[in-house]
TrEMBL record, chain A:
Assigned keywords, A-Z: Endoplasmic reticulum, GPI-anchor biosynthesis, Membrane, Transmembrane, Transmembrane helix
Species lineage: Eukaryota, Metazoa, Chordata, Craniata, Vertebrata
Involved pathway(s): Glycolipid biosynthesis; glycosylphosphatidylinositol-anchor biosynthesis
Superkingdom classification of source: Eukaryota
TM helices/strands, residue ranges: 12-30, 42-63, 84-106, 112-132, 153-171, 183-207
Transmembrane helix as UniProt keyword: yes
Protein name: Phosphatidylinositol-glycan biosynthesis class F protein isoform X2
Pfam families cross-referenced by the UniProt entry: PIG-F
Annotated GO biological process: GPI anchor biosynthetic process
Subcellular location: Endoplasmic reticulum membrane
Organism, scientific name: Xyrichtys novacula
Automatic annotation (TrEMBL), chain B:
Name this polypeptide is given: GPI ethanolamine phosphate transferase 3, catalytic subunit
Signal peptide (residue range): none
Gene Ontology biological-process entries: GPI anchor biosynthetic process
Organism ancestry: Eukaryota, Metazoa, Chordata, Craniata, Vertebrata
Membrane topology of the entry: Multi-pass membrane protein
Length: 219, 1100
């Protein structure tokens, strides 16, 4: 029923996953001393930047971004500006939430903020790409009857997977195993990343298996 | 007909209470059973032996401390976790593992100088942890996890011990190594060089520290007893396990140490090299397997120590307790009073040497002194405690008197040795030790398993009770009488059976049998009545089996308790428990709005223009109400998260948490040096106390509960503020530095005594008044029909509220009495007279008639508990109040929002999420009030609030400390029924009422409960059993942790204390919950009386 969209989605997700892979592997080859644990912040920014660039490019090329009502340059610029603003606000929001969850307030603020940037580029950016800078639409999407297209459902799944992954990633932190990945925020960002990749796989698969039940009333 | 209804409801009340009590009792029996098998309790005997003790035969008492001992000096080298396998040397082993053949010095010495040295396996008693072992081989007794002595607060050994005895006779004890010794024997050493033992990963600090000083000390002459405790081997085992090259290095180092020490020994010196316990193949210890208990002991002296080379009669294994009497007699000090060891016979000559410098006791003399001391201890102990079985006790006593008669006769005849008597003395000593060990030092796996099963079964029963509450509260629900009778009968049968078979009764088993049988019978009958009810109502039986399917376990409200229980099984999570619980509460709280949004209930449907109409059922709430409720919910969520985050500032620190600083608010004001900081803290505390009081009164006034003139209102208006003033003054007085205000010293000491006692008195009075007269209803006649109500003049009432009349009218809840009366009288009255008219009376505060006294009760109790805490905790208590309020409001708002869907309208069921949040918040504030589940962190200062000079009994201080420790458990458990009331208190005018009754939707609030006594009691039962279930599951998890991980390294440090705290917390919580529920029942009785009084008046 949604074959075309599902195929587009699967290929998009393949590209995204491949870019994440490349963002991890390429610097490891090119930059001396690069490792996911050792230079974790570098890895985070590398992956975030790649995911941002690739998502924006792919979603723009596919034309999933909601149609703008006006086509003036000023309006487009203001949308762009608002998107950037939302991106920044979302980083601050995630930072606050993570701190409230128990991350150190001052000690490793840079690490926490980098983690917030990663979360933002994995979740908020997708919302921006699919729904545009419209918070009410974001809130609406995350309800049972809120999805209005296959892409909305896909958004629900990937965002939920990423956040749950990050949440589960916090579990090993108190354990006394002394592993390099138990340092804040390594396990959480790895959890978020794994959750994101799982979401990328799960979303097309789930939609494919439930394509008969999926009905979107308004579009 | 008219009288039947009240009696019926009253019967239900008793039934509800007895059901809850029965449920709690089931848990208690399970916990008691498990703890009886797991925790071994022993009383400490505080007497000490002295040199003047008459232990030798003969007419005149001989002071044997004066006599020349066999050795003047002893070097005690303790190598932690020196397993016997490490010490043995096998020359045929060509490919030794890293831990094998690394201590060749022992074997070499034993073969080259057989009469100077011996190597024995040295068997420790469980628990094989270092602290308990040090206690064991210095006191000679069998320390258990809980040694009930008179020092709860410090870990110092108060029992008679070797170190103490050495000090008594003037020997200079020099210590170096593991700093545990310094805590166990504070100020007992002539010189001491402790090194930090905590970091298990650090293999070298302690050992290198010792080695820097060891040789110079031995060569020097300012010591008589040298104790050196090496930790490297143990830490290496914990870190790498025994089968690791690091272990080889460590053992080789120890080999060198022993060689160097042997080279430096003088003739009158005895060297003891020993391990305190062994280790498993993974390097852990703590349990009772042979690998953990079998350490090594190596004895050596430059002068001949043994009569000859090892003979066949020598012991194969030396119990650890035997070191104490042996060392004591070799060095000429009295055997410590509570030692149950026996002297190591090969070290003593078979016949008495005639005089000479190397004098000492013959084998028989040593045995006799030892037996006499052991008998004396046994007599003292059995007069104090009754845990040694009486028949074995009398048998031992008979044996001793026979042996003593034999020995005395032999001495009179002039014989000096008798192998037969020596053997029977040895047998006597062994049997004493075995008896004591059976009593103190063994887990009872059968009891543990039974306890585990009982707790699990109680959890299951509790869950089924909560699911079946509606059926249980119905008219034909199963009774509790038959199960109780059966329980009693089975208990008596079990007792009789035990009496017949064993000859004595063990109460735990009888209780277990009774509990199990009553549970089974009750469940069977509940199942039967459920099927009959479901047959009657079609297929409306609750399906509780489906709740346990994997799909349901992933629901956040069940996933979170599951995670919480899983976290209790790992020591890291128990250590970080405070943060873990906060994390879980935060996650679950976030789930509420997310879930509501997922269901599309958070935002009003019309809010979103894209939303097509008709997707949702027709909204019963207007968009503005929805928006208001959602914003309340989000605001309360913000408050909740804020208080969660701030509560992290009040945590204490466990010793396992390395880089952790305890909260500055935890130390009492009097300890603060900086005057400005002190003032700041004081002002903060007083402000939060004032805010607590103000908020409580504000809330009560808001709902119009402060208008009448009953006991509760008196309490709220006068006692509550007075109590806070008392508390504030008490803080001020106790914070004054001791040396300032010299001329006021007497007044200050008087105030320190009087203020807290006044506070206690006020608290008791307030709670009593609430109990006595819980009604907070003010009646005002609208048409002045009744004479009684109109006698209260309106001005007084206006003055008592103190808010503007308009606001008053807005908040005070008018009640419609005709409606009430109709529902009460079942239409018996001829309703024609007043039916169409306006309501005759307004009752202010009737809408919150149940919750107001409960709230006030909690508030008063909170101030009382705050009195027992350090001053800084006032802030934390304020956060607790905020969090409670936020939780209640979140629950209320989400109930209102979910009522949109129309599925939730059946009864007053409190869903799992708020109950889970409520119970987790109790644990969270346990940590946020500075408590930790460890014994050193108990705030003993609480026992001295109001009793600065100490106590005479133990009951009062123990209960004060319990109240202090479980303050948050108490508050949350007492306040638990508020979860049922709050959605009704906060109910939006016109939603439910508009649907329910035809009249102009006045809010009926808690009177709704009164209208449906059946649903009320079943909802209350369900709420309480759900709360008990969540608590019980946590207890079950910690019981499991203790049972499964009983050989874990951290069992006595982490899991066993956690189990004790969890179990005591459960006990306190369940009692408090019962108090809360009883208070609700009490209010209900008062309300029925009030109605009874009102209705004749009104109908007149």
């Amino acid at each position: 029923m949604w074959d075309h969209e599902i195929r587009a989605m699967a290929s998009t997700h393949c590209i995204l996953a491949a870019s994440v892979f490349m963002a991890t592997v390429l610097p490891a080859v090119l930059v001396p001393g690069f490792s996911v644990y050792g230079t974790h912040l570098l890895w985070i920014y590398c992956v975030s930047g790649t995911v941002v660039a690739v998502s924006v490019a792919v979603f723009w090329l596919l034309g999933i971004t909601p149609p703008t009502k006006k086509h003036t340059v000023g309006y487009k610029l203001s949308r762009l500006f608002r998107s950037c603003l939302y991106f920044l606000l979302s980083c601050i929001f995630f930072h606050t939430v993570v701190v409230l969850y128990g991350a150190p307030l001052i000690d490793s603020a840079l690490e926490t903020f980098s983690f917030a940037v990663l979360l933002t580029s994995l979740t908020t950016l997708r919302c921006l790409c699919v729904l545009g800078p419209n918070v009410q639409a974001w809130i609406r999407v995350f309800s049972r009857h809120g999805a209005m297209s296959v892409w909305d459902t896909c958004l629900q799944i990937t965002v939920a997977c990423t956040l749950v992954g990050a949440w589960i990633g916090a579990f090993p932190l108190p354990l006394d195993w002394d592993r390099p990945w138990q340092v804040w925020p390594v396990s959480c960002s790895l959890g978020a990343m794994i959750g994101f990749l799982t979401g990328l796989v799960a979303a097309p698969a789930w939609i494919h298996y439930h394509r008969k039940q999926l009905t979107y009333k308004c579009k | 007909m008219k009288d039947e209804k009240p009696t019926a409801t009253r019967m239900k009340k008793l039934w509800l209470l007895s059901l809850l009590t029965w449920m709690c009792a089931l848990y208690f029996v399970g916990i008691y059973m498990f703890v009886g098998g797991f925790l071994l309790v022993r009383l400490e005997v505080s007497r000490t032996s002295t040199c003047g003790d008459v232990l030798q035969p003969g007419e005149e008492p001989v002071d044997f401390c004066r006599a020349q001992p066999r050795f003047r000096k002893v070097v005690l080298l303790i190598i932690d976790a020196l397993k016997i396998d490490f010490a043995r040397f096998d020359p045929n082993n060509t490919e030794p593992r890293p831990y094998e053949n690394k201590l060749p010095v022992l074997e070499e010495t034993v073969t080259s100088r057989p009469s100077h040295s011996r190597l024995y396996p040295f068997r420790a008693d469980p628990p094989t942890t270092t602290m308990q072992r040090i206690k064991g081989f210095t006191t000679g007794s069998l320390p258990t996890f809980v040694d009930v002595g008179n020092n709860f607060a410090s870990s110092a050994i108060l029992e008679d011990n070797l170190i103490h005895q050495f000090g008594q006779v003037g020997k200079r004890v020099v210590f170096m190594g593991d700093d545990t010794w310094e805590n166990l024997f504070p100020k007992k050493f002539h010189r001491s060089l402790p090194f930090p033992s905590f970091n298990v990963k650090d293999l070298h600090t302690v050992d290198n520290g010792i080695l820097q000083h060891l040789y110079t000390t031995i060569v020097g002459d300012d010591w008589d007893v040298l104790v050196a405790h090496f930790l490297g081997v143990d830490h290496c085992g914990h870190r790498f396990g025994p089968d690791h090259p690091a272990m080889a290095d460590k053992l080789a180092q120890m080999d060198g140490v022993i060689r160097s020490v042997i080279d430096r020994l003088q003739n009158d010196t005895l060297l003891v090299v020993m391990g305190d316990h062994g280790m498993t193949d993974t390097g852990d210890h703590g349990g009772e397997s042979q690998k953990e208990t079998d350490a090594a002991i190596f004895l050596y002296s430059p002068s001949p120590l043994f009569p000859g080379p090892p003979s066949k009669s020598e012991p194969h294994v030396v119990p650890q307790t035997d070191l104490v009497p042996t060392l004591a007699l070799l060095l000429g000090v009295p055997i410590p009073y509570s030692s149950v060891g026996q002297v190591l016979l090969p070290l003593f000559p078979p016949h008495r040497q005639t005089g000479g410098a190397v004098g000492g006791f013959s084998q028989l003399e040593a045995l006799w002194i030892n037996a006499k001391q052991v008998n004396r201890f046994l007599e003292t102990y059995s007069s104090m405690a009754k845990d040694i079985p009486p028949e074995s006790l009398s048998q031992l006593k008979g044996e001793f008197s026979r042996l003593s008669a034999e020995y005395l006769a032999m001495v009179r005849e002039g014989h000096t040795s008798s192998p037969k008597l020596a053997a029977s003395l040895q047998a006597y000593l062994s049997s004493v030790r075995d008896t004591c060990r059976a009593t103190w030092a063994q887990f009872n796996p059968l009891k543990m398993a039974a306890g585990l099963a009982l707790v699990a079964f109680a959890c299951l029963t509790c869950f089924i009770l909560s699911e079946l509450s509606l059926v249980l509260m119905s008219e034909n629900g199963p009774g509790l009488k038959a199960p109780l009778v059966v329980a009693f009968a089975v208990g008596v049968c079990a007792a009789a059976g035990q009496l017949l078979i064993q000859g004595y009764i063990e109460v735990a088993w009888c209780l277990a049998a009774a509990a199990l049988s009553s549970e089974l019978l009750f469940l069977w009958r509940a199942h039967q009545s459920r099927t009959t009810v479901s047959a009657k109502n079609g297929s409306k039986a609750p399906k509780f089996v489906t709740l346990l399917s994997p799909h349901h376990l992933l629901v956040p409200s069940l996933l979170v308790p599951l995670l919480r229980c899983a976290s209790l099984l790992s020591d890291s999570y128990v250590i970080a428990e405070g943060r873990v619980v906060t994390f879980l509460v935060f996650s679950l709280a976030l789930c509420i709005p997310i879930h509501l949004n997922w269901d599309g209930l958070l935002l009003p449907p019309s809010h979103d223009p894209l939303k097509p109409a008709g997707l949702l059922p027709a909204a019963a709430l207007s968009p503005s109400t929805v928006r208001k409720e959602s914003s309340t919910l989000l605001a309360c969520l913000g408050l909740l998260i804020g208080s969660l985050y701030l509560s992290l500032c009040f945590h204490g620190c466990r010793e396992e948490q390395g880089s952790c600083h305890p909260s500055p608010f935890l130390s009492p004001l009097s300890r603060l040096q900086d005057a400005q900081l002190k003032n700041l803290h004081y002002i903060l505390s007083v402000c939060s106390l004032g805010l607590w009081t103000y908020l409580l009164k504000r809330c009560l006034r808001h709902y119009g509960n402060l208008n009448s003139s009953g006991g509760t209102v008196f309490t709220a208006c006068f006692i509550l503020p007075l109590l806070s003033v008392c508390l504030g003054l008490h803080w001020a007085v106790s914070a004054t530095p001791e040396d300032s205000f010299r001329n006021l010293a007497e007044l200050i000491s008087l105030a320190q005594l009087a203020l807290p006692r006044t506070a206690f008195f006020l608290l008791g009075l307030g709670l009593f008044l609430i109990w006595l007269d819980p009604l907070t209803v003010f009646i005002k006649t609208r048409t002045a029909t009744t004479a009684r109500s109109s006698s209260l003049p309106p001005p007084r009432y206006r003055a008592s509220t103190g808010i503007s009349p308009q606001a008053e009218l807005h908040h005070l809840i008018p009640q419609i009495y005709q409606r009430m009366r109709r529902s009460l009288d079942d239409g018996e009255l001829s309703g024609g007279t007043e039916l169409g008219s306006k309501p005759a009376v307004e009752a202010y505060g009737l809408g919150t008639v149940y919750s107001a006294p409960l709230l006030l009760f909690c508030g008063l109790l909170g101030i009382g508990l705050l009195l027992l805490h350090p001053e800084g905790m006032a802030l934390s208590f304020l956060l607790l109040l905020f969090e409670m309020g936020a939780l209640l409001h979140i629950h209320a708002s989400s109930t209102t929002l979910s009522s949109l869907r129309g599925t939730n309208s059946s009864g007053f069921i409190v869903p799992w999420t708020p109950v889970v949040l409520w119970s987790l918040a109790a644990t969270q504030f346990f940590h946020a009030t500075g408590h930790l589940p460890t014994f050193p962190s108990i705030q003993w200062g609480a026992a001295f609030v109001g009793f600065p000079d100490g106590h005479t009994g133990t009951m009062l201080p123990a209960s004060l400390v319990t109240l202090n420790t479980f303050a948050s458990h108490i508050l949350f458990a007492v306040g638990c029924p508020l979860l049922l009331f709050w959605p009704l208190v906060c109910e939006v005018r016109g939603i439910r009422g508009g649907k329910a009754c035809g009249e102009e939707g006045d809010a009926v609030m808690e009177m709704r409960l009164r209208e449906n006594p059946h649903q009320f009691s079943s909802a209350l039962l369900q709420l309480s059993t759900r709360y008990l279930f969540i608590l019980g599951v946590q207890v079950f998890a910690s019981v499991c942790a203790a049972a499964i991980l009983r050989r874990h390294l951290m069992v006595w440090k982490v899991f066993a204390p956690k189990l004790m705290f969890e179990a005591s917390g459960f006990l306190v919580s369940s009692v408090s919950l019962l108090i809360g529920v009883t208070l609700v029942m009490r209010v209900d009785v008062a309300v029925s009386r009030w109605f009874k009084r009102l209705i004749p008046d009104a109908s007149r």
